[in-house]
Amino acid sequence: MIYKTNTCALYGIEGHVIEVEADLSNGLPGFDIVGLPDAAVRESRERVRAAIKNSDFLFPQKRITINLAPADIRKEGSIFDLAIAAGILRASMYILNEALEGFAFLGELSLNGSVKGIKGVLPMCLSLKEKGLRKLILSCDNADEAALVNDMEIYPVENIMDMVDFLNGKKVIKPHKVDLEGILKNNSTEEYDFADVRGQNTAKRALEIAAAGAHNVIMLGPPGSGKTMLARRLPSILPDMTFEESLEVTKIYSIAGLLKDKLYLVTRRPFRSPHHTMSAGSLIGGGRVPHPGEVSLSHYGVLFLDEMPEFSKNVLEVLRQPLEDECVTISRVGGTITFPAKLMLVSSINPCPCGYYGDASGRCNCNPAQIKNYLGRISGPLLDRIDLHIEVPPVGFNDISCSAAEESSAAMKSRINKARKRQLERYEKDGIYFNSQLKPKQIPAYCTIGKKEKELLKNAFERFNLSARAYNRILKVARTIADLEGSENIKTDNIAEAIQYRSLDRKYTL
Ligand SMILES: Nc1ncnc2c1ncn2[C@@H]1O[C@H](COP(=O)(O)OP(=O)(O)OP(=O)(O)O)[C@@H](O)[C@H]1O
Ligand SMILES: [Mg+2]
Ligand SMILES: [Zn+2]
């Protein structure tokens, strides 16, 4: 007689339902797990055996075969322990007839029989629901995260004794619930506010545009001009997340094991600021059990590369692909997996190695070759994926000493939220969320311009010797500026402003 239970495996950010078949037969006592298990799954044998024994059950002295189906899905980690134990306990009649029906199990076992939390519960829970498995038994540590999925009955258990008593009807466990509305309200305040930044109105305006349309930006300015200060304040103006965005980002954080106490739904856009010694591997992710890299952890949020030329050339080159494709593909034995990576790149750079090129004091001694070499670390194709070039000059005395109140982040954010809403509505049928995602073939439809605007663009091209590649960038940014104004039409002013943000095209030929 074969007894079946259900569990789930992770593949990228998607879950796959796995059927666990348990067979007990007479013969030499033994315990085998088949169905392409990796080393961690094989270790699960020892954990399950010890957990059952140490929970006052008798481990069956029979020939036990566990099959994890389908066999062609690669199975990793320790998530199947609980399902395997449930199968064996059912087969040895500790769990009564039909008690397992409709249930799925997720969890790792300790040798003493307690159930431990695992990573990636949210995506797995979503897949189980899709397959009609609405009842889930898992560790108390994972209960809040799993309860984010509506229409699921979540039963948290401390140990396998609890599980058996619950399934046999001897113990009552109420389905676990969380206050989803409370979590979504997210009243937390940001640490930094744009009101702290004196002057710098051009830079603030450019960052407002960038946040509204999720445009990639590069900030160019001498040391101490406030580039890092400005970037750190971006989270306070990023538009609110939609529930779909939250869920998708939470899936990634769940797999990365980054959902900490009380934060089981990511409701604020990520802001990642990796150090410049970071490797290409931690940027894009990977590994034997694939984990998402910084680009995926920045999904629907910001990846901030401060002092971009300090990053290794290899890291910067690797960044091109996710910026283009909005996802990363990791090849590995048994196929490729994809992690989403729709991020907004924010970077900063000094104008030369010493930082003071163009400074009125004339203290820069860098020669043209040094400057070229320094800026050249950011390759043309990478720079080409950046929509806005923001010049951040040192703040003047009048600005820094002025006592007038600066505009708050909250005021900026309310305009940005409105502009983002326009985009969400406009692109509802296109499967995109914001202007920076517009593909070249969508641009004529959504960024239509009149004769006057075209003329202006043509002049700018000739005068500033802009590359043809800059054309689409200018139109997309102009689209966002019009959205901030609440206008469907792109006007001359919008185009003129967008052209201002291509200063690196004009200044340097990298
Ligand atoms: N506009 C400003 N208003 C108020 N304070 C400012 C402003 N600009 C700079 N500062 C002050 O100067 C400090 C240095 O700024 P920040 O570190 O952001 O400069 P940076 O451009 O990142 O320099 P570097 O290129 O050396 O990294 C800030 O922490 C802040 O205290
Ligand atoms: Mg800095
Ligand atoms: Zn210099």
Q: What is the gist of this entry?
A:
38% of the residues lie in helices and 17% in strands.
Can you walk through the features of this model?
The chain is elongated, with a radius of gyration of 28 Å. It folds into 2 domains: 2-178, 2-Layer Sandwich (Ribosomal Protein S5, domain 2), CATH 3.30.230; 194-428, Rossmann fold. The strands form 6 sheets. The chain has a 5-stranded parallel beta sheet. Helix content is 38%, strand content 17%. It is an alpha/beta fold and 510 residues long. Residues 227-228, 306, 348 line the site of magnesium ion.
Query: How many domains make up the coordinates?
Result: 2
The CATH C-level name of the largest domain is: Alpha Beta
CATH-defined topology of the largest domain: Rossmann fold
Number of strands: 18
Q: What is the count of DSSP helices, taking H or I runs of 4+ residues?
A: 22
Radius of gyration: 28 Å
Provide mean pLDDT, rounded. Answer: 89
The named CATH superfamily of the largest domain: P-loop containing nucleotide triphosphate hydrolases
Q: Which band does the percent of strand residues land in?
A: 15-25%
**Poorly predicted runs of 5 or more residues:** none
CATH architecture annotation of the largest domain = 3-Layer(aba) Sandwich
Say which molecules are bound, naming each kind only once.
adenosine-5'-triphosphate, magnesium ion, zinc ion
**Alpha-beta content class:** alpha/beta
So what's the overall shape?
elongated
Helix content: 25-40%
| Terminal Cα span | 71 Å
